[in-house]
């Protein structure tokens, strides 16, 4: 019960691929706590974030020049360009504009939502590699494949237009083929997700498994089917 309460109030970060780089969406909460949580998440995936152009959705936060200026400088030190702030607050909008940052995106939604991915595109070379563990509260949305070298903990989620491959334990939520690609697969060395989806089909893993087993999950005749995975 305590863990559930802790998760309910924990800040959440979502990262989505957009045409102009990355869109990072912050959950609700105290700004300083969100600020620190964001930098911690970035520091845990330095190679992925280095050189990125980032638009930050801060929701209802009312931020002053000192807040945004400090964050922009901290991201710049990490080789990340903060070029846009998306906000519901007129004050924050004005602050961002004063600092020379954009306050609107050409395409607010992620590419995965804006542009349905065909089978040929989804099965191509576009992939996101994360060499880290995804902890509770972390969310990845990507239009191509997602490969995680590490664990995906309960409370974390991956939504991919293509395949999801986890070289570790998958215990969070995984949605492969999110744009309707029924050829997508999910595989992991230990496959125990809280929820697993392929295209529009949903499966919940039975909780009575005896031991960890590398498995691959795909759609067979419209049903979610798991079978042994023997990476070669």
Description:
The protein is 24% helix and 34% strand. Helix 4 links the parallel strand 3 and strand 4. The N and C termini lie far apart (41 Å). The chain folds into 2 domains: 100 residues, ACT domain (Alpha-Beta Plaits, 2-Layer Sandwich), CATH 3.30.70.260; 117 residues, Pectate Lyase C-like, CATH 2.160.20. It contains 7 helices and 15 strands. The chain is elongated, with a radius of gyration of 19 Å. Strands 4-3-2-1-6-8-10-12-13 form a 9-stranded mixed sheet. It has 232 residues and is α/β, with parallel strands linked by helices. The N terminus is likely disordered.
Helix/strand order, N-terminal first: HEEHHEHEHHHEEEEEEEEEEE
Which CATH architecture of the largest domain is right?
A: 3 Solenoid
Q: Based on the structure, what is the oligomeric state of the protein chains? A: single chain
Major sheet, described briefly?
9 strands, mixed
Radius of gyration: 19 Å
Shape: elongated
Count the strands?
15
CATH class call of the largest domain: Mainly Beta
Please tell me the overall pLDDT: 80
Return residue spans where pLDDT drops below 50 for at least 5 consecutive residues: 1-11, 107-124
Q: Count the helices. How many?
A: 7
Structural class: alpha/beta
Distance between the termini: 41 Å
Strand order of the largest sheet: 4-3-2-1-6-8-10-12-13
| Helicity level | 10-25%
Our estimate of the beta-strand percent is: 25-35%
Number of individual domains: 2
- CATH topology term of the largest domain: Pectate Lyase C-like
């Amino acid at each position: 019960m305590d863990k559930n309460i802790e998760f309910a109030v924990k800040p959440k970060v979502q990262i989505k691929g957009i045409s102009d780089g990355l869109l990072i969406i912050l959950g609700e909460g105290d700004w300083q706590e969100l600020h620190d949580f964001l930098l911690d998440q970035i520091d845990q995936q330095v190679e992925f974030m280095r050189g990125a152009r980032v638009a930050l959705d801060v929701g209802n936060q009312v931020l002053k020049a000192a807040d945004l200026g400090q964050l922009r400088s901290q991201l710049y030190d990490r080789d990340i360009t903060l070029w846009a702030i998306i906000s519901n607050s007129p004050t924050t909008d004005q602050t961002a504009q004063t600092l020379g940052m954009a306050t609107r995106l050409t395409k607010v939604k992620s590419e995965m939502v804006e542009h349905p991915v065909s089978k040929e595109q989804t099965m191509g070379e576009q992939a996101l590699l994360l060499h880290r563990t995804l902890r509770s509260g972390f969310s990845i949305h990507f239009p191509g494949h997602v490969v995680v070298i590490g664990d995906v903990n309960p409370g974390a989620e991956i939504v991919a237009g293509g395949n999801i491959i986890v070289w570790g334990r998958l215990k969070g939520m995984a949605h492969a083929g999110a744009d309707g690609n029924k050829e997508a697969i999910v595989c992991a060395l230990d496959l125990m997700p809280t929820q697993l989806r392929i295209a529009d089909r949903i499966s919940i893993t039975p909780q009575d498994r005896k031991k960890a087993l590398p498995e691959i999950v795909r759609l067979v005749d419209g049903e979610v089917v798991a079978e042994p995975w023997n990476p070669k």
